[in-house]
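Thread title: Can someone regenerate the structure for this chain?

I was given the following input by a collaborator and told the matching structure tokens would be attached. They weren't. Posting the sequence so someone can regenerate them.
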Amino acid sequence: MKRTLLTTISTLFLFCNFSFAQATVTTIVDSSAYGFTDDLIFDDNGNLFCADYSGDAVFKRTPAGAISIFASGFNTPNGIAFDSFGNLFVCDNIGNAIYKLSDAGVFLDTFQVSSPSGIIKDAVSDTMIFTTYAAQGTLQKLAPDGNIINFHSGSPLSGPVGLAYCQGELYTSNFSNRRIYRVEADTLVFIAQLPTSGSLGFIANVGGQIMATAFNQHEIYTVNPITQVVNLYSGGVLGSLDGPVGDALFTTPNGIVANPAGDTIYISEYNSKKLRMITGFTVSTDELFNSVSFELSPNPSTEIVNLSIEASALPYSLRITDPQGKKVYEKKDLIDTNLELNVSEFETGTYMIAVRSVNSGTSVKRMIKIQD
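Best answer:
Regenerated them for you:
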């Protein structure tokens, strides 16, 4: 049987590991003239934006390395996020407002909010999801029409800031007690807590796992949201040492983001105002549980990927997530040993394809989408 990929339903998880043996840390911005201190995000053109919580501006760094002030006049710019039209939303934490700016940095709208901190675009709409740091904190939604809805407040939130999609699910993290939660409609599910004192800066999806900055302890951690395993990735004492990731040192790492291709990590440092870059890591697809055998071809692909799976694995579920951890396709109860996946509308980059068989377990493979 052959069926074309059409719809999006159900729930499934990816299981991925990192190989950091060759990873290298490099300082790419080291100047007091720029404030690379807080949240980081890329636009669709590969420009990197950073909020300067210690100043009043949001900075822009082009792929060629040119740096400029994108917009200024904020009080304490914190979380930043783009909508699908390229408008940038900036949480002004002490300024008690969320600002909407055009792709040219022009102020378009102001939303009065008490102590907004982190922000992210909803995976399937232009609703913006944001955290507030007042009292214990809240999770709220800012609809495209400006309506604000509070959907989580109080415990277990404790100064929430970080937001990230990973394996198709939304996660938030507490700055105050370093705990990470999966966000569900009616509850927050505890995932992990960084095993250190101090605060958790931001979180990001990298290769199907969560990476988190330990702000006061000068450390970077990886967190598997399924197994809840937490590992120290880099750092540990105050410093600014570049080089192999196992030897590198950081100074108050805060913002963290992977580039659109998912092959480079960027980290802002609050006290030093430096921008650090991590390259050379690889994402493996080592199976954490029982595996099911399936094949993808051609891979890389420009338009069609054929998935073939052994009949003994039927039925199975399928999920595809993009480099930022957002779900782009999902389906369950498949009974096709040969499935044609149309990826022509996908952006170029590396995607994770996870197959879960009721009989055989779960496996993950990387699929690379290339241009014609």
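The CA atoms of residues 264 and 279 lie 5 Å apart.
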